[in-house]
Amino acid sequence: MTPQLDTILIYARNPAASAEFYRRHFGFLTSGEMVEGLIALSSPQSGAGILIHQAAKSLKQGQAGVKLMFSVPDVEAFKAQCARQGLEFGSVHQANGYAFANAKDPDGNSVAISSRAYRQGA
After folding, report:
1. CA–CA distance from 52 to each of 15, 20, 81 (Å)?
2. Pair 61, 74: CB distance under 8 Å
3. In this structure, what are the phi and psi dihedrals at residue 84, rounded to the nearest 5 degrees?
4. Closest-CA residue to 101 (of 58, 72, 122)
5. Is 118 left (phi over 0), alpha (psi -120 to 50) or beta?
6. pLDDT in tens for each of the 122 residues of the chain?
7. Domain extents for the chain?
8. What is the DSSP letter of 79?
9. Residue 33 burial (CB < 10 Å; 0-12/13-18/19+)?
10. What is d(CA 111, CA 75) in angstroms, rounded to the nearest whole number?
11. CATH class of 4-118
């Protein structure tokens, strides 16, 4: 199973302003609507999409502002595969028809695996 990087998750203090920034300056497509706590933006051609999530008030600027989210059809299976290679993900969380789990890269940057792109109706 080879994961594909298809989503960048950005924590923003003002999600609507961030969505508008990427729409206006980089041509991303979005309704601007917050759905399931996220504003989705898609590339007008091909490439990674962006999900914008409300940042926690405790989040310091420059701290965990971006999370790389890798789409995998089976979060538990990929988590087990990574564990055999020495990468430990946290607990698997269930959310609206998909699962996800979080880890950190060697520099402490957030990464996630998610089945959101594979859920029914996605």
Report:
1. 6, 11, 28
2. no
3. -65, -20
4. 72
5. alpha
6. 888 889 999 888 889 999 998 999 889 999 999 998 999 999 888 889 999 998 888 877 656 667 888 889 999 999 999 999 999 999 999 999 999 999 988 767 788 999 999 997 76
7. 4-118
8. H
9. exposed
10. 13
11. alpha beta
Residue type, 98: Y
> β-strands 110-114, 38-41: how paired?
unpaired
- The residues, any chain, with a CB within 8 Å of residue 12's CB and separated by 6 or more, are 18, 52, 53, 54, 55
Neighbours of 26 (CB within 10 A): 11
Which residue type, as a one-letter code, is found at position 15? P
The pTM score is: 0.70
50/69 Cα distance (integer angstroms): 10
CA-to-CA separations, 110 to 36, 51, 97, 106, in angstroms, rounded: 20, 14, 22, 10
